[in-house]
Amino acid sequence: MPKYYEEKEEDGRACAGVREDLIQCLLETPCVIQEGKNPRQCLKEGHCRSLQVSFFECKRSMLDARARFRGRKGY
Predict the structure, then answer these.
(1) What value, to the nearest 5°, has the Cα angle with vertex 64 and ends 19 and 1?
(2) CA dihedral sign of residues 29, 32, 38, 44
(3) DSSP string of 19-42?
(4) What is the pLDDT along the chain (75 residues), one digit of tens a residue?
(5) Taking a C-beta distance cutoff of 8 angstroms, is the pair 42, 26 a contact?
(6) Which residues of 16-25 are buried (b: 16+ CB within 10 A; e: fewer)?
(7) What is the pTM of this model?
(8) Distance between CA atoms of residues 67 and 45, nearest Å
């Protein structure tokens, strides 16, 4: 679930909650903290895979015509 803050600005982009959680997950992985790698490299190695799949599904649902009736996936 996304971490919400009172003084935080509202992000109006699609899939903002999943995007925020994916970024936070990547920044907290030992791959970034201990090994000093780029978050993109850690993502390619397979860290935070479930959030990456959720973000992909949310973005893909924006292109799906059925999403107009069902709504976007994600939060």
Answers:
(1) 25
(2) negative
(3) HHHHHHHHHTSHHHHTT---HHHH
(4) 455 555 556 677 778 889 999 999 999 999 999 999 999 999 999 999 999 999 998 888 888 777 666 766 666
(5) yes
(6) ebbbbbbeeb
(7) 0.73
(8) 31
